[in-house]
Amino acid sequence: MAAPGALLTEAGVSMAPVEDLGAGRGPFWLDDWLRANATDVLAWRRHIHAHPELSRNEFATTELIVSLLSRVGLKPWVLPGGTGVVCDIGKGERCVALRADIDALPLTEDTGLPYSSTTEGAAHMCGHDAHTAILLGAGRALAGAPELPGRVRLIFQPAEEVMPGGALDMVAAGALEGVERIYGLHCDPRLEAGKVGTRVGALTSAADLIELRLTSPGGHTSRPHLTADLVYALGTVITSLPSVLSRRVDPRSGTVLVWGAVHAGQAANAVPQDGVLRGTLRTADHEVWKALEPLVASSVESLLAPTGVGFSLDYRRGVPPVVSDEESTALMRAGVEAAVGETGLAGTEQSSGGEDFGWYLEHVSGAFARLGVWSGPPAPQADIHRPTFVLDERALLVGVRTLVHTALASLA
């Protein structure tokens, strides 16, 4: 049964069924469930897409998830903060987890879709609406299985789009207790629908935030020798710190510092008394990530010492890199092959983007994969985090099948 209002416009939107690229691959109960409920999966995604909610405010989305799971006899529970859902399916000591993120981005949609966001300044431009609908589909399909070889835990996580991420809330609430492996999918607009990209090792990078505040007595630009030249000091850090780090960490770690904002002064002939520099520091190496904060602090101190400018460093650790282990990745690849065939298997590149799925992998083994959502040529590739991002809805059914088969392979 579709969610109330799932057709999403005042007049209603007619939904033609999408092609099930894995049809007939079984098991029989999954094929039967998708034949009967594929349009519901689309409807859930469109409903969530039209009603996006920002991080830690996903109350209506949480309510919808709880309602849809409860209707098939499951017993979901909500995190103490009121957003985010955990739900077990099946019985037994062994348990694997499947995770989806449920929050939207603070963007205004510009796709022209009939089910576009109805909330100003919020939109699902990262595919979390698809992730949520896919996990709902996988969960309800698994709930109808004649028998499962263990338990499957559904984790609908809030606040992925903020640092350090809602995954920490999930871990603190006990969502990983008893879990032996965890899996997740993320939309990839560079990969065609029907394909799932996997990779052993680092898939995403750690992403930390740096805010550096500089101070000086200030003064006249005609007499820089009588003060501490704050703007010159800012320039020194801007140009030199990335270079210093490139010589202090293993170049194979994919470590990169990029500045995003700098502010100082107003008048052309006055040395300002304060300034601020902000940027992101990313690395794909877990050991390097642990060493970066003291390395940045000591490097900044050394660079600024000759200038006489004071500073305070606010170093905010973000998320760890997502590192998929070999065994979990092999199980997920087996799930993809069972879901859509060998042609659905694809490799994928390591990204400098951050993803808080990495927090789960600090506690249990697991794998993360990229779900193809591009319709293929000549359709354009609309990147995520843009107001124009769209996805091929055939990917929703591929995602359902992939998660179901990955859970079964992991519990076999």
From TrEMBL:
Gene3D superfamilies: 3.30.70.360, Zn peptidases (3.40.630.10). SUPFAM superfamilies: Bacterial exopeptidase dimerisation domain, Zn-dependent exopeptidases. It comes from the Bacteria. InterPro entries: Amidohydrolase, Bact_exopeptidase_dim_dom, Peptidase_M20. This is Amidohydrolase.
